[in-house]
Amino acid sequence: MGIVGLGGIGQALIRRLKGFGVRMIGIKRHAPQEAQAALGLDWVGGPDQLPELLGRSDVVFLCLPVTPASTGLMNRQTLACMQPHAFLINLSRGGLVDRDALEWALSSGTIAGAGLDVFWQEPPDPDDPIFDLNVLATPHIGGSTDRSLQGILAGVVENIRRVEAGQAPLNCARP
User: Fold this and answer.
1) What does the pLDDT look like over 82-121, one tens digit per residue?
2) pLDDT band (50, 70, 90) for residue 6
3) Distance between CA atoms of 158 and 126, rounded to whole angstroms?
4) Is the pTM of the predicted complex or chain greater than 0.85?
5) Torsions phi, psi of 149, nearest 5?
6) Domains in the chain: boundaries
7) Which residues are catalytic?
8) CATH class given for the domain over 2-142
9) What 3 state SS string does 15-63 have?
10) How many C-beta atoms surround the C-beta of residue 163 within 10 A?
């Protein structure tokens, strides 16, 4: 299992995968050797070693934020590094995967399949031909856990309190 991004999402995934006894490797932007020891992974490389992780993994999990450096991270060049029997699982943000490159990789047999909880466009077009390929899609619910719902509820309650007090709500796109 190759895990790209060893922050909160990646670490939660590691805890769940450990019970299956799978071999796990990862990519971490900062201090990869420290992350390897702390998380008990078989190997951790830096971002420049992504092609190595892709070539060694049967399943690749994307667990990182979209930044200028990570936008389109999975493109024709990087997808071509994956094994033909490998699967790409995007748990984070749609902008990490170039849609056209993914369609190419799936239709050409460059990779075996993809699991998507997030998309390049939200909501995705249900008639998009990519969904005729070996893609398992969920409607952006992978992060819907008891803990995340409690956090959302706490945020809503705090914003109601702030509006009642005449303050601007938190995380408001257009205050």
Assistant:
1) 999 999 999 989 999 999 999 999 999 999 999 999 998 8
2) very high
3) 36
4) no
5) -65, -35
6) 2-142, 145-175
7) 93, 122, 140
8) alpha beta
9) HHHHCCCCCCEEECCCCHHHHHHHHCCCEEECHHHHHHHHHHCCEEEEC
10) 12
